[in-house]
Each structure stands twice: as structure tokens, then as C-alpha cells.
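Changelog-linked ticket: iron/sulfur cluster example.
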Amino acid sequence: TFVVTDNCIRCKHTDCVEVCPVDCFHEGPNFLVIDPDECIDCALCEPECPVDAIFAEEDLPEKQIHFMDLNAELAQAWPVITVKKDPLPDHETWDGVPDKLQYLER
Ligand code: SF4
Ligand code: F3S
């Protein structure tokens, strides 16, 4: 399974959603998640993210491991997104800012 992590929050470029063959991205107000029950590990999405927010489960940095559970949880609550849209307006300001989880909107 692939996992969306901290750096997507407040950026949400959405390039990732266009390449997913099984439509397993789900969209919240300022973050996307991958449904681990649907992901087929094709790895197509990982290089598409301009801010490197997507990791294979086994490559997750220690500090991002909790995003596995968060992706699974929010995928149940949020609708599927399959078409790219504009990134959030302040994405440049937020790229690379650490610990953005505190800004997650549900
Ligand atoms: Fe979709 Fe493939 Fe990415 Fe899984 S690894 S979320 S199936 S694009
Ligand atoms: Fe987020 Fe990157 Fe996709 S910022 S929406 S994981 S392209």
C-alpha cells in the first residue's frame, strides 16, 4: 500500500489522482488519502507528487508511520477524487513546513 503523508496537507496538488488505475484517492478539505483496501501497489502515484508526499508503506519515514492509520480512517469518510484540480492557494508557503498534521481539516 502507498500512503499520503504530512507534506500534502495545505498543498494538495492532486496530480496523484489522475494516474491511479483503481481510483483509490479520497479528498478532504486540505489533504488527500489513499484507501489501503483498494491500492494495488502500482507505484504510479509516487513520482507524480510535486512535494514528495507519497511513500510506499515500507519506505515510510519513522515520523510518518501514523499516516498509515490516518489514510485508512479518512478514506472511509471522504469522497473519491479522480480528476486533478488546482492546488491550494498557499501551497508554496506550506511545502516542506514540518508537522502540518495540526492543520488537518476533516
Ligand atoms: Fe493508486 Fe497505484 Fe498509487 Fe496505489 S500505488 S494509490 S493503486 S496509483
Ligand atoms: Fe497531495 Fe501530492 Fe497528491 S500534494 S494531492 S499527494 S500530488
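Closing comment: Example verified and attached. The chain has a mean pLDDT of 98. The beta strands are 2-4, 25-27, 32-34, 54-56.
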